[in-house]
Amino acid sequence: MFIFSVKGIALTASFRVPETHTFHQTLPLPPKTTIVGMIGAAKGLGLEESHKFTDENNILVGVSGRHRGMMKDLWNYRKITGKEKKYTEEDIKNRMHYSVLIREYLFHFELMLVFGAANRAVAEDLRQFFCSPVFALTLGNSDDLLKVQAISDVIEQSPAECSFFEHTLIQGDFSAEYKPKIDLRTTPITETISAPQIFLLPTKFLFNGEERRVAERKPFTFIGSPVELNRPVEAYTINGGGVTLH
């Protein structure tokens, strides 16, 4: 497998859990669909074209990252029901036709994306897209801009069995197949301790014009604090840490 990594930071990031509405819970890390969207932004493609490009070229993605804190932001939005209409000044004055939602944000987000392809030419081309992206790279909302700090060279690496992971995600449900590997006696009091979280997330969509429907869902285990899996999985070693590709 030919792989390379993209490292960057963002002041804020938010990856909404698909089923949340008035309370937008955020995932700890960007899911695969978000990363595929970033590939499209780098290459200048729409969402449907991004998924098609990724599938046709058998591009695999992985991620690791951490944040320094979390916050909740209150959003005021206008609800549109039926046909769109013009609102009078009196409507706006009385706060009519408005509602609120709460959205979670990760603060000072540090990210490493990993991309893999069986074809070196595909990996090299994808790397160039991230070196000079067509559109801005964002982490959730349009104003959650990602500042790319470093892009590695493309290297050839074979996966190896790994059981120690932290601040990453693995495809599958490992909720009952791990043990913590963190020493609370030496952990700084300012560090957040978190157990693995499991989410059933979309991985593929069916497109019909502007309509998009979920075609496939898979479980993913989001790992925060260090853990050791009861059964090892295949992973790639990037900057001293294990990252799985899916």
What does this entry look like structurally?
The protein has one domain (2-79, 90-243): Alpha-Beta Plaits. It has helices spanning 32-43, 47-56, 89-93, 120-131; strands at residues 2-13, 23-24, 60-66, 69-78, 98-117, 147-151, 155-156, 160-165, 168-171, 178-180, 197-208, 211-223, 227-238, 241-243. The chain is of the alpha+beta class and 246 residues long. Strands 1, 2, 3, 4, 5, 6 and 7 form a 7-stranded mixed beta sheet that branches. Strands 8, 10, 13 and 14 form a 4-stranded antiparallel beta sheet that branches.
Summarize the structure.
By secondary structure, the chain is of the alpha+beta class. The protein is 16% helix and 45% strand.
Any descriptors?
single chain; 246 residues; alpha+beta; Alpha-Beta Plaits; four-stranded antiparallel beta sheet; 4 helices
How are the secondary structure elements laid out?
Blueprint: E1 2-13, E2 23-24, H1 32-43, H2 47-56, E3 60-66, E4 69-78, H3 89-93, E5 98-117, H4 120-131, E6 147-151, E7 155-156, E8 160-165, E9 168-171, E10 178-180, E11 197-208, E12 211-223, E13 227-238, E14 241-243
Parallel strand pairs: 2-5
Antiparallel strand pairs: 1-5, 1-6, 1-7, 3-5, 4-5, 8-13, 9-12, 10-13, 11-12, 13-14
Helix pairs in contact: 1-2
